[in-house]
Amino acid sequence: MNAPSLAYWTRRSPYFEATRRHGCRSYSVSNHMYQPAGYDDPVAEYWNLVNGAVLWDVACERQVEIAGPDALAFANMLTPRDVTRCPVGRGRYTVITSGEGGIVNDPVMLRLAEDRFWFSTSDSDLLLWTKGIATFAGMDVRIAEPDVSPIQIQGPRSGAILQGLAGDAAAALRFYELMETDLDGIPVVVTRTGWSGELGYEIFLRDGARGLELWQRVLDAGAPHGLVVAAASDIRRVEAGILGYGADIGLDTNPFEAGLGWMVDPAKPADYIGRAALEDIRAAGPARRLVGIVMSGAPWREPFEATWPVTGGGGEIGRVTVMLHSPGLARNIGYAMLQTPWTAAGTPLELQTPAGRRRAVVSPLPFVAPKSKTTSLAAT
Fold first, then answer.
1. What's the pLDDT tens digit per position in 90-113?
2. Omega before residue 224 within 30° of 0, cis
């Protein structure tokens, strides 16, 4: 097989050469950086994740660092969540909203100090957004993209791997908890977070020059536990109800449409960008909602390349945002953004797929209860 064609102007992670050596067959681009999209068959990678442990290069999750005397007030202005309630050493899943209430980004926020935050970004230019806001905010903050490149270890054996790599304290982190440490002099931040719904951790490398060294250390620690290099699993994230920015949500989506209305805190004392618009949407109710769907017919194993129309009542009522076959559930599952009257569980739908019409039904999310929050190291 020929190597993937790569552009010189697209950024490469500190682990990029390692991913090529491990046989990465295709790359996508996120935050202007190559991200491994596939090594093996996606179903094989799924089972490695569900039953064992996988290593992902997710350095494309670039960090937006907000620091300085007004860092807390500035960070709190960006999101409907009340950032003041997040203690140092903890993280939060957040949405960054526009003046119209749209989702600019849905990063994981990490609070490293009283006056220093990282926002671990999805695929949109959050750095430029925050710099633009800071220009006119009149606050004493420094906005930068630090030399930080995360990798993820995900799967039921990930706790044992991290324990061997970084010790008991790292492996025992609670969900969304973080610690700063070093691995034989390699500076890192370790968090109990991930994109899989399984028990998992992220290691944020703080010196890009040591990427290949860190990668090998993780592989060595994972070898006794069957750690496999893989790409992030779309199958498992859809099972767990995890959203993909640019696919399921975006600037034209508000949190209430996306099932993220729980992040819009009506009692938050401080003002934030988009508050008035989101309060109006809450009062009126969203006109559409993102829901889970189960599609009938033969297993859908084709790449999902574009949204599909959904019809009901004689007309188009929405679009499918993702569809795939879950080997664990033995069903075709996905998401669709639908007009609100069609979003009740059990509602029958008709999908206009590239292969013809298929029937579907609205399903509650998540399809599989995430294990990431409840699984302990002792259970592995």
1. 999 999 999 999 999 999 999 999
2. no
Taking the domains of the chain in order of start, what are their residue ranges? 16-59+148-237, 63-145+254-286, 287-367
| Residues 316 and 286: beta-carbon distance below 8 Å | no
Classified by CATH at the fold level, domain 63-145+254-286 comes out as Alpha-Beta Plaits (3.30.70)
What is the average pLDDT across 173-196?
97
Gap between the Cα atoms of 348 and 342, Å rounded = 9
Q: Give residue-wise pLDDT tens across range 201-236.
A: 999 999 999 999 999 999 999 999 999 999 999 999
- The torsion angles phi and psi of 236, rounded to 5 degrees, stand at -70, -35
Percent of the chain, pLDDT > 90?
94
H/E element, 191: strand 186-191
The answer to whether 304 touches 366, Cβ cutoff 8 Å, is no
Contact 325, 44 (CB under 8 A): no
Looking at residue 333, its amino acid is: I
Does 269 score more than 50 pLDDT? yes
Q: What pTM was estimated for this model as a whole?
A: 0.96
Residue pointed to by tokens 């109710």: 285
Domain 16-59+148-237, CATH number (from 3.30.1360.120, 3.40.50.10240, 3.40.50.150, 3.50.50.60):
3.30.1360.120
For residue 66, count other CB atoms closer than 10 A to its CB: 23
